[in-house]
């Protein structure tokens, strides 16, 4: 998670200052208070389990019904704006290039397993070539794995949680997948669009057929400064195999003992020191593929009229587009999608309402 950690798009004055304070080098210095020692997980999860044995879709697990999920309007979280934006998106239905093989990972914790994991595994996660959830408790039925990390299990220590998760992915699956995605438990992915993009001629060329590190996501320029760019953690981001090897290779000297919520900024910093910068993932019309908010929020968002630059989202975005032009027809992820909305997105995007 990073600076975009708010569902309110307009005028959140606290976001940028909170980011500035959070990016100070807070260090895990008290071994007793922060459980300084790291014990790497020795558990190995079969990431193909979900794809090979996908669960049936059950709207009730999201606290909704098919009728409610398909309804235009209705309750606040099921408003028309989501419907209108999702109607602009097409799900790729063709074949995938072999270079698109994707390992999907989300991070969560055991207290919300029963709430979030059914929604994830019954909707988008089962379409990934491999899937696991980095958590605080192993549950094979829910595809969660306990991955220990330095420091406490809390929002303000997500960097260490993500750092350990990347290490785990590298140690166990580096030779099995071409691409590795990580995001929170409130992400919805259009997996077919993601795999289509990952296997595209564009990315095969950019990665020199996998030989060159590639770092994909929603680029933000901190206060408009290109030299301070990072991929937002909210919609998740993707590393190819070469980039994952590069990132893990920095872990003995980059952010080793830091404690903070700005994992996305720290990942970008570690990679930038090795010459790996966020790749421009916009489509040919300049529309974003990785979206840091709900579909409807993007559809409705307009900058403050009096002072657009007072909104961090305007300052950090690159050539921001508005309305239905905000989002690519081949978008790959949305953020802040709670379980009820995951089922709604599933129903609308995959024509389950007919």
UniProtKB/TrEMBL annotation:
Enzyme class: transferase
Membrane topology type: Single-pass type II membrane protein
Molecular-function GO term, any one: glycoprotein-N-acetylgalactosamine 3-beta-galactosyltransferase activity
PANTHER family on file: BETA1,3-GALACTOSYLTRANSFERASE, GLYCOPROTEIN-N-ACETYLGALACTOSAMINE 3-BETA-GALACTOSYLTRANSFERASE 1-RELATED
Annotated region (Disordered), positions in chain: 45-73
Signal peptide annotation: none
Family of this protein: Belongs to the glycosyltransferase 31 family. Beta3-Gal-T subfamily.
Domain Fringe-like glycosyltransferase: 101-271
Listed InterPro entries: C1GALT1/C1GALT1_chp1, Fringe-like_glycosylTrfase
Name of the molecule in the record: N-acetylgalactosaminide beta-1,3-galactosyltransferase
Basic and acidic residues: bias regions: 63-73
Keywords: Glycosyltransferase, Membrane, Nucleotide-binding, Signal-anchor, Transferase, Transmembrane, Transmembrane helix
One GO cellular component term: membrane
Species the sequence originates in: Triparma retinervis
Alphabetized Gene3D superfamilies for the sequence: 3.90.550.50
